[in-house]
Amino acid sequence: MMALRASGRCAGTLGRLTVVRRCARPTAGGRDGSRWEGVVGLEVHAQLCCNSKLFSGSHVQFSAPPNSLVSYLDASLPGTLPVLNKHCVEGAVKTALAVNCTINKKSTFDRKHYFYADLPVGYQITQQRCPIAVDGNLAYSLSVGKNNMIPKSVRIKQIQLEQDSGKSLHDDARTQTLIDLNRAEGQLRVDANISVHQPGEPYGVRTEVKNINSARFLARAIDYEIQRQIEVLENGGKILNETRAFDYKSGQTISMRDKEGKQDYRFMPEPNLPPLIIYDNETLPANMNPQQVVNIDSIREQLPELPCVKRTRLVEKYGIRNEHSFTLVNEDGLVQFYERVVEQTQASPKKIIGWVINDFLALLKQDNFKVHQSPISPTDMAEVLNLLEDRLISSSVAKQVLVELWKGDGKTATQIVELKELGLIKDQKKLEQICQSVIENHPTEVSEIRQGNWKVINKLIGQVQRATHGRTSPSLVKSILEKKLS
Known about the structure:
Elements: E1 2-5, E2 8-9, E3 20-29, E4 35-46, E5 48-49, H1 86-98, E6 102-103, E7 106-107, E8 110-113, E9 123-126, E10 133-144, E11 148-159, E12 167-170, E13 177-180, E14 188-197, E15 207-212, H2 215-234, E16 242-247, E17 252-258, E18 268-269, E19 276-277, H3 296-302, H4 307-318, H5 322-330, H6 334-344, H7 349-366, H8 378-389, H9 395-406, H10 413-419, H11 428-441, H12 443-450, H13 457-467, H14 474-485
Parallel strand pairs: 1-4, 2-5, 15-16
Antiparallel strand pairs: 3-4, 4-14, 6-10, 7-19, 8-9, 8-18, 10-11, 12-13, 14-15, 16-17
């Protein structure tokens, strides 16, 4: 199971979203050679990006002074009532559409009772029985080896909106705890439910590792907990149904509390919120103001092209490799850059991809730039590649021109080639003279070639390229050298 719980930062409150998934971890070997399989369920708490909170109009602002953004409702004063934030609902619907969930046009809110200082009212408003969305899936690819991508998918149990709690602040001396009711501020928190069993056997007793705040720590916590449980079982021990914490310094999980006698949350319907009704184009009443309701179809039209769809389109349309599509999609703005270059050049999409993800990305990374900060525009890149396609420059010169363009002097690729005299040498006689000079100055390599080791000719080609500052066609140079050495 994977529970994704997104906190509401929408117009501001404390709010969350829950998606639930279960996946089998690859089998792990025990000390005695037995095989074990881990089962992992994730509950992901993620903020919804809004300006105010889920059930109140208080503003949301990261690092605001403690308790400076608190309404009467947030402080749990008697007589205050929650008002649902429409933007948070729209964010939940977008998430549901992105992970292919079935959206419930009627969902309800519940009270989850527990007593803790950062929740002064004594209960949390959530969606336990009938959440906003259920039964989804998320497709992704797993990189195995250098160029092998294996398609995978994750099952999503449900997505739910949930009120966020406050934040406990402990002093250095651990003598007191202060409460900040602005919001919890965590953009991403994950609870991992982990168990192990041998294939074919029932699932084992699970433990819950709480409040992990990064994907890297999540992976470490899961790997550690799976191995810990295997060792306990193989030593004759028993796995306890407990809550554990992950210590990122030691890389270990630590027992927090036993779940066997866990408190009853006493879920009950939230009396102050009516059922949440959302619509699509077919069910939207003709006399209802579209601005006052949440319309699934309208939100679907606003969704951008999703990453998995974009990757598939790039591979099918341009014939590029799957791993290259990941590179394009993962770098903000790189897909648009690549496609604009494709539109403006005669070079093949497969050839362009190498220049974009190797040479162009290398320039970006050397200055830690984003694509939109690049001094090289798609038009600039296309002009360089057109010069290369027209055999006016060599590939090594093309790299030099990109470096010059990166300086942002305002010159075009063609102007750089002309000013620095970087165009290919077209004088056949001059080129033959250069090749002859290289042959005469490298007798050892020439001797090896004449003894049958023609691979050495690449060294001579490199010397010609060096002598001409890259202004020659390697294939033409090879042809001239082969003729002279035959």
